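Reader question, answered in our methods column.
A reader sent in the components of a multi-part assembly and asked whether the whole thing could be modeled at once rather than chain by chain. We filled in our standard form and ran it. Here is what they sent:
COMPLEX SIZE: three components
ENTRIES:
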Amino acid sequence: MNASIQSINMPKWGMSMSEGKLVKWLVSEGDAIKPGQEIMEVETDKITNVVEAQDAGILRRRVAAEDETLPVGALLAVLADASVADSEIDQYVDANRVVAVDADGETSLISKIQVDGRTVNIMDSGGESDKAFLLIHGFGGDLNNWLFNFEELAKHERTIAIDLPGHGQSSKDVGDGAAVNLIAAVDGVIDALGLKAVHFVGHSMGGMVAALAVIGRPAVAGSLTLLAPAGFTTPVNEAYLASFIAADDRKEMKRVLSDLFAEPSVVTRDMVNDVLQYKRIDGVNAALGLLASNALKAPEAGGLAAQLSGLGCPVRIFWGAEDKVIPPPQSDAVYAAFDISVIDGKGHMLHMEAASDLNAAILQQLATD
Amino acid sequence: MQLSKEQLKLAYQRMRQIRVFEDRLHLEFTRGQIPGFVHLYAGQEASAVGVCMHLTDQDTISSTHRGHGHCIAKGCDIDGMMLEIYGRKEGLCGGKGGSMHIADLSKGMLGANGIVGGGPPLICGAALAAKTLGTGAVAVCFTGDGGSNQGTTLEALNLASVWKLPAVFVFENNGYAESTASHWSVSSKQIVKRADAFGMPGARVDGHDFFAVWEAVREAVERARAGEGPSLIEATTNRYYGHFEGDAQTYRAPGEVEKVKAEKDCLVHFRKRVTEAGLLSTADLDAIDGEVATQIDQAIEKALAGTLPTVADLTTDVYVRY
Amino acid sequence: MPKKTFKQAITEAHFLEMRRDPRVIVMGEDVAGGQGASGEADAWGGSEGATKGLYTEFGPSRVLDTPLTESAFIGAAVGAATQGLRPVADLMFFDFIGVCFDQLYNQAAKFRYMFGGKAVTPVVVRAMIGAGFRAAAQHSQCLYPIVTHIPGLKVVIPSNPYDAKGLLIQAIRDDDPVIFLEHKLLYGVTGEVPDDSYTVPFGEANVLREGKDVTIVALGLMVQVAMDAAKELDTLGIKATVIDPRTTSPLDLETIVESVEETGHLVIVDESSPRCNIATDIAAQVADQAFHALRGPIKMVTPPHTPVPFSPVLEDLYIPRAEHVVTAVQATVPAKKKGN
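And here is the structure of the entire assembly that came back:
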């Protein structure tokens, strides 16, 4: 097999994805492709996203057709140099068209850790390494929010995503709702897994939790990557929190979730259903209410920036220019003091909306060790 | 005799209220003021009051299509009842139930019931709730000779006995199910004979005699409250009016009702008994008669002045949430 | 997420709600089983074993076996509901509704309205529905249209384990009388069911898949039939939306109408007898509200207007199948080229 032939396959975005539909080709056969270039749009029952090229080459074959639904791993396109013969491409397509998928593969990555009587659910790519990425989702989210990031990061380093208390499959008990309850869960996971060098990645409220965890125990912090962190300079949009908690039907939930994205059409019916199913678990709305009125309203939740300056580990911060939930900071002084990238045309869910840029940036943090 | 003077006054007042309430409805119905079906309880007052004098608001009763007497005996608001019968918004059920469905759960009145035999299973449930929640309450089912032949009633008697529920089943045998005589329709002739078949004690009392009813029910209620299970009471009574208002009652022999009124009227009997025993004076009783007459007059006036429900009321109260 | 059977989901909902709320009681014929007999207590745990274990944990005051006396115990459940308990009564086969119907439609359903909004009757009546058990005409019917017809009752027909648990918990917490109907052939079906307590609200249809060519509405066991048909239709180039209303009262007509406005075609799959059933009801309401959106006739896939037959050969012919749904869709959606 010619080593210069590269495939583009149906990605696996999150645990429940078993197949995806190719919505639209964004390139034509014969186009010269650069790494990171958007190749096609793929729709799952949860979300629509673009598939980007990992490698450079000529797009020699569009194997899948628009509107076609294919299993995870299925061959979608073939890249190769111009020097590779068409017959070799045909052979490659014939040999690689069919894929076998381990449907339950990721389920085995899920485990539960007991911390102070609370169950903390995590997804751990595994291994013995005491160095790892630790991904912490935001308010109302869960570890599946990292569906476009987890696999990519895990290719390079042990990666652990956590369900914070009150979220996902973790206990719904958040104590009095103060941040310390969430930080305790994060610390508990770090201790239980014996991690020594943690590259924290936190989104929104999870950013605040990651930052406070690092401040609390700088010794384990390898780096800190914050995506639209809560409380950095301003508190979270209270109206958003209130409407997220209050929403109890699909229409209202969809409206609320649309505020998370620069492009509201990415909010699918299934994404709405998933959030509603979560909110309809006993104790969830109460937990969210406590977090909204305590963790996210604490004095430190308005001025994390001040506490973060002078930390020993590298800190990188990303913001979507169109973030409606926590808009980017306005003060020039903050931009002078921190490494902040504001990404045009993206909203609050940067790790989903700008996944490949973010993944690349997060991986760079490994180089700082 | 263990009834205090105040209790005797209350018993007489309630019986009198029922009588005047029903007599007045009979009159007003002929004037075309009252919509729908009305089934009057006049003549049977001693039964309802003799039973309910043992009950508090925590105890539950179920009633029948002939339910006004049970409502008054259980302490339902008379103005609210009259407003309901006239279909007014201020009625006990907002004008949505009417004569056949007057209820006030805050008084333990689980509703008059348009379905003969509808109440007995429900009263098993009320008794079960009292037993499970340990409230010490009892549940009393009023039904009649007609209801005694319903499968639901027989099932309820069996279940109450099997579950040993704090329930009392009161069969007011007024001699007729609609136009059909009970000595023809009730195979056992006496309903009380059925008690034995369901493994519970039974008593047959003269339903015109407040004191006889009161005494029999005292025992049944004590038994129920003590956790010893259900009892059956058959009270033989007579209704002074037809099955419903407008019933020409051609199935009754000429003079039948007049004879009962002359010989067995419960109010007359009560007055005689308490005055002869020196428990209450004629003046006491006359005073109550006067008050009740005024009260019912006023209830009619209030009912006529009540508000009619509007289209907005049509679709509310179907569900708690839909 | 843990996988559980439909029956386990039902059992779990009972346990969780009985632990949460001491007012919740369970009653019915054989809900524990063996009452008064000399053998094992909790011998059956319900005719299908769905309430097994409740008696052991909650005891005879909260798990009540009854004589064979549907009128009395359904009525007792209704009466108890008015007096502060939250009973779950197991009627076993819904075909038995005939011997207790008065207590449901004249009593439970009417109290709130007749009593001017002052009564609250939080009773749940569980029962099995559906053909496919070789149980013949008196143990196989889908009689939910009869109760859907009655104002004051709510009617729930779960089609999968997740919904079964969430809808049953909602039913037990609901302040109105709820008829909760379980298709016998679903008990063994597995699906993801969280361990936590959660609710699924009434009157919110589940959209199982979205396609632009036709809207298929199906209930209970028929949801899987509709999904199978939708897969088959995919190969014919017809993309189907499949909607499971989950509750027939309240009915989420809005979701159905919105979908029909997009697809222009409606097929309803209903296992109940064809006259005055849920299919005819939805068809009529969609025609009334969204006739402008329809680009073809509304098609209904139902059994024939016969009792449910016994012989397996006949019963299999009786129950709607995916191929019937495909044919019905093809009768309203114009033929398409593959991949269109």
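What stands out: Chain B touches chain C through 50 residues (CB under 8 Å). Residues 96 and 317 of chain B are 9 Å apart (CA to CA).
Send us your own complexes using the same form.
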